[in-house]
Write a structure and sequence with these properties.
Blueprint lengths: L1 E7 L2 E6 L11 E10 L3 H5 L10 E2 L3 E9 L12 E4 L2 E2 L5 H4 L13 H8 L5 E2 L16 E4 L7 E2 L6 H4 L5 H11 L7 E5 L3 H12 L4 E6 L2 H9 L3 E4 L5 H8 L7 E4 L10 H12 L8 H9 L5 E4 L12 H6 L3 E4 L4 H13 L11 E4 L3 H9 L8 E4 L1
Length: 390
């Protein structure tokens, strides 16, 4: 079959690889009908995330049709059935899964020993990601093996198109969880750093959850335009001070809720700060750039909440813990507990409250994937979200 394969920094190719096979009774094989390139795929493309190996198949946003099931599926899934696959692989039986903390499933990471050493305790296995999270083959391919498939799936109504439901596997529940974790109240100003795909889903989720006003911060014109179309006030941080504008919008008090939808590859508008982080990252004295975290801690209203869906992989530097502690800020973060949210989100799509396909700007064939990675990373051609068809 054809698949997008990681070969090294900025080197992804459309290769022919062996077809996946059933390896466990709880496996299923799906034929992929649609997949997407996620912002966190770029952390692998740029090789900021450790634990990648040549030959790894990329992709964790995908959906398709069941073509084969293991003996342990017991009729939960049937051939021809259409599912979205969450990026977090879940067993559904461990203590964490039973509590709804699916992204920290205790059993699905087959490289648990490595994750235990890196993180203290393992997290869930993830598709198409670092070997710290299991090294599972991803969904930017014609076929995928889905482990624990009797639990790791989202059934979707036949009346909804692939593009309407594809993002249930990651960016829509990720944005939703970011907003839920912020505990949004009707009087809240919610500030969101990053107007990429997750930021777009987050701002719409914040408005659905009743925020008084949502402010989106970025420097890319087409992303800011999409954010305004979704109902946000925007700040172009290449043209104006984020801190000064947020204080203007909140009577000098700062936003109650701040959400980091950027993560480890943040670009500070302050040249000296950005140069400092880039140099430390280049010489491996830190792995992630923390400029968004620093700004959120500084501008957030005392007793506010910081929600962090943006992906971080390792160590950061110069985080103002004194301000964080003395202002009494609450920090909530984590990979997304996808299946906790998707029943509700499927209903919201079906009811017409939101159509997540609004974020798609580029559609291409799988073999165009390597070119699309570069277009997406470099934000060329007004690219915000790419959907690939195998």
């Amino acid at each position: 079959m054809r698949a997008l394969v990681w070969h090294g920094t900025e080197d992804i190719r459309c290769d022919t690889v062996p077809d996946p096979k059933i390896e466990d009774d709880r496996d299923a094989i799906i034929k992929v009908t649609a997949c997407a390139i996620c912002g966190s795929d770029l952390h692998l493309y740029d090789h900021f995330m450790p634990g990648m190996e040549k030959g790894d198949v990329m992709g964790h946003e995908f959906m398709g049709e069941i073509v084969e099931t293991g003996k342990g599926i017991n009729g939960v899934l049937k051939k021809g059935e259409r599912i979205v696959v969450p990026f977090t692989i879940i067993c559904g039986e461990c203590d964490q899964c039973k509590r709804g903390f699916f992204s920290v499933c205790e059993r699905s990471n087959r490289n648990k020993d490595i994750a235990d050493k890196a993180f203290g305790h393992t997290t869930a296995g993830l598709f198409g990601y670092t070997h710290l999270t299991g090294g599972y083959q991803g969904g930017q391919a014609e076929y995928v093996r889905v482990p624990f498939a009797d639990k790791t799936h989202i059934k979707v109504p036949e009346n909804l198109t692939d593009e309407q439901v594809l993002f249930l596997g990651d960016i829509f529940p990720t944005g939703w969880q970011a907003a839920v974790q912020a505990d949004i109240q009707p009087t809240d100003t919610v500030a969101i750093w990053g107007a990429g795909p997750v930021g777009q889903m987050t701002l719409r989720s914040a408005l659905l959850l009743g925020a008084k006003q949502v402010v989106c911060i970025d420097s890319v014109p087409e992303r800011l335009e999409m954010a305004r179309a979704g109902g946000a006030i925007t700040i172009d941080n290449s043209q104006e001070s984020t801190v000064e504008r947020l204080n203007e919008l909140t009577g000098g008090k700062g936003p109650e809720k701040c959400i980091d939808a950027v993560g480890m590859e943040a670009h500070s508008p302050r040249a000296l700060e950005h140069a400092y982080d880039r140099v430390k990252q280049a010489v491996m004295l830190e792995s992630d750039r923390a400029s968004v975290l620093r700004e959120m801690i500084y501008v957030c209203r005392p007793a506010g909440i910081l929600s962090i869906p943006g992906v971080y992989g390792g160590l950061i530097d110069k985080v103002p813990m004194g301000a964080l502690m003395n202002k009494g800020l609450t920090v909530r973060t984590g990979q997304t507990h996808v299946n906790r949210w998707t029943d509700d989100l499927v209903k919201r799509i079906d009811d017409g409250q939101i159509d997540p396909s609004f974020v798609i700007t580029h559609r291409a064939k799988l073999e165009q994937g390597p070119e699309m990675y570069k277009t997406f990373r470099d934000k060329k051609d007004n690219c915000i979200k790419v959907v690939l068809r195998p």
